Amino acid sequence: MDEALRRKILSILDEHKIMSLATLRPDGWPQATTVGYASEGLTLYFLCGPESQKAANLARDDRVSLTIDHDSPQVMEITGLSMAARAEAVSDPAEARRIMGLIMSRYPPQPGLDLPMPDPSQVRLFRLTPKVISVLDYTKGFAHTDLVTV
Questions:
Q1: By its UniProt entry, which InterPro entries does this protein fall under (predicted)?
Q2: Deepest of 11, 28, 76, 85, by most Cβ within 10 A of its Cβ?
């Protein structure tokens, strides 16, 4: 992958806090949800409830698709990422605590919201390892995409 494209991907990951994540339901239909995330390089992390549909879907099939983007007032300024990735549950307690801190550090203090940070044993944490990344950048032309295999 060319260095300018890698910087573009990392910049988009850093500029955003939420992604749309699609997992596969037991009936084969995709299920898309919005989740917060953190990233280290190209690796993404998110958490969900241990009894959630996402966690059940990922226990059965680790393939996900995701998008990271934002609304743009000008159509020719649209940028974003689409990825195909593999999800892996994070089971090491020390790594889970570190990732929880990484995710929570992306958000400013929440005045008036006195909820304690959940213990890693109360949630399911996942590591997403991208396999294919599509970088959408309309500033290079209508619907311009660069496809990267990781």
A1: F420H2_bilvrd_red/Heme_oxyg, Pyridox_Oxase_N, Split_barrel_FMN-bd
A2: 85
